[in-house]
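Dear colleague,

Following up on yesterday's call, I've attached the two folding results inline so they're easy to grep. Please treat them as preliminary; we haven't cross-checked anything against experimental data yet. The first protein's sequence and structure tokens come first.
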Amino acid sequence: MKVLKFRKVGSSANDADEAYYVPLDRVLHVATAATSVVLYTQGIGANTVPDTLTITCGAGDELAIADKLTQLMSGHMSNGAPLTVGAEFYAGITTIAYAAV
């Protein structure tokens, strides 16, 4: 199974303890807004409402982050260790947070 590991980010720094592991086959789509990139994932179990993983960033950085993220997702990932997305993924990232609906 191919998995992306999203480090929780606050104030442009990785959280020491929290990460969100997202299997790529659960990603529904990616959307951008003025200062964010939102990854919609399939809800867990009988929950059919998509969960969201939101990356906030500086204005103008959202398309570059979304492009880099989708390139990573569509690339040739091995079934080994998950690839990590955190504060170091792109200099403009200020927060990464997951919300289960």
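Below is the second protein, in the same order (sequence, then structure):
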Amino acid sequence: MSVREIGENLAKIAASSGTGSTHTRLLLGRAQTSLDRLEASIRYNISRDISGYGEFDDALLKVIEQYKRDKPFVTDVLKYVCLTTE
């Protein structure tokens, strides 16, 4: 799958679950530093059961697990989501 396909899918999930652009930009900043930090942050948010983040965070976690060794790809996907959810 391409960055665009995965990004569009995540953007649809973000829109339907009410995940805002502030949250996606925060996740993008964490992805640019470390995917491990991003993954830990997402798992923490899921454990807190914050309304509106669960569905998007679950989907993003699956992408991270699938592309764990490709940080630029994950970062580009999140950039795409940020651009389409603004």
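For the second protein, one point worth flagging: Residues 3-17 form the longest helix (15 residues).

Best wishes,
A.L.
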